[in-house]
Amino acid sequence: MSNALIEYITVFVLAGFVGIEVISKVPTILHTPLMSGSNAIHGIILVGALAVEANAHGTLQVVLGFLAIILATINVVGGFVVTDRMLEMFKSRRPEQSKQ
Amino acid sequence: MSSYIVATSGLTQSEGVHLAYLVAAVLFILGLKQLSSPKGARKGNTTAAVGMIIALITGLIGLHPSSGRVILMVIGVVVGLLVGTLSARKVKMTAMPQMVAAFNGVGGGAAALVSVEEYMRLVAHSSQGVVFVITVVFSVVVGSISFAGSVIAFTKLQELMTGRPVTYPGQQAVNGIVVVAILAIGVYLVGFGTSVALVVVLLAIALFLGVAFVLPIGGADMPVVISMLNAFTGLAVAATGFVLGNTVLIVGGTLVGASGTLLTKMMGDSMGRSLGNVLFAAVGKAAPGGGAAAGSVEGRSVRSGTPDDIGVMLAYSQKVIIVPGYGLAVAQAQHVAKELASALEKRGVDVAYAIHPVAGRMPGHMNVLLAEADVPYEQLKEMDEINDQFKLADAVLIVGANDVVNPSARSDSSSPIFGMPILNADEAKNIIFMKRSMRPGFAGVDNELMFDPKTIMLFGDAKDSLTKLVASVKAA
What we know:
Shape of chain B: elongated
Number of domains of chain B: 2
Largest sheet of chain A: none
Helix content of chain B: 55-70%
Number of strands of chain A: 0
Low-confidence stretches of chain A: 92-100
Oligomer: heterodimer
Distance between the termini of chain A: 64 Å
Largest interface: A-B, 86 and 115 residues
Number of helices of chain A: 5
Mean pLDDT of chain B: 86
Number of helices of chain B: 19
């Protein structure tokens, strides 16, 4: 096995543990925003889509890469914007609370 | 220019790229951490977005596309930006869940396409290692399942097709054969031969499996399915990271894959269901085995009341608990509900909202809607907190909720929702059940609570009925 591959496997395993650990105490009310926020994070595939499009050879590869860029951008942008809209709703309750 | 800055700080370009990816990865982790506590949640989303911007800019370093290709890349990003922003901004709060499904699906589709393309490009020149092919196969299959499954989830929640489970004879057998076919093609590609055509076939079969896999799952279970498909896309992206040799894809994808898997399990737990039960039990199918229970509805009578009578009753109560559900969201009645609560409070009535973990179409759905209507946070009670108080309540007002107050979840072991923890609305002295019709809830299960002697039905659109209740409370 190459060093690079071992590095990737290391990163994969450690990220797996971190992913589980970091959200283990999430309250029920945040399940949806958390899902939506993590949904935006896997839009990181846009980095890959841009890279393959830059290196693509031939019409078919260029078309596939172009499609991938559009889909991945929708994932990233839509994901973050929709999560922000959900969480925007949570902020107004604090002042209301102190009034009571 | 970026490479110049990096060079002057004494790093090679590659070292700089790796460090920037590390910064992005840390921001993703911090973002997820903040997203899982109510205080930092909104900041967490921003933190993750900053990480994303850093990763995207870094990803462009070292690419040398032709100028024609640059134009295509820019057009692609702009199109995605417009579609993503517009749909995320325009979507109604009630349609949030299917929007998340759609954004998840396109990510899975992108992961599959990127892997297909990289496979086409590299196998044209030389044969590739085993790990490369395994990860290509994995991301193509899992990404395609996530894409097609999300499309079906979207279609069901948007009510473009029935939300009920779709089953047909031999369904499991067909799915089983498809899985075997996928494995066979995968093994061939890994061990025996190179074929772009077979990778495309793999993609097509996986799309079919995604559709076939989500069709038999009922609409009420969709949130759990979307969460699972979200984890799938994460894993597909991580696999694509192996294909491309890109660590930030591996980190980002794996974080989502791992946290998404845990989140899926937590959502299942809050419905009292195992993941296997959600995926394979076809809960909410029309005319379940116990046909007697389903057929019994028409013959029995319910008590219905007028808004005036009910308004007076509420006005002279000491304690009222409001149980909101999806009907409240559909009718956009959260502001009127808050108005009613305020009118009651002015008269000295103690008002609280009982929020079931899966009320609405998604966990947290009701909290979001009621927060939008400026309902004070401390009036929103989670199930465990309020379940003992129903017996002290003079009236419980059920606004567009159904399955989450269905006592058969407690008592009837043949009920598809048996075992789901429910709100003890049946313990209140009076039960006001606001509903549009006698239709069963999203799980497709009849509700015995409607026939309880303490129950008064108030038929009509939730918003209209609540408006009338407000008027009658103020007049009382």
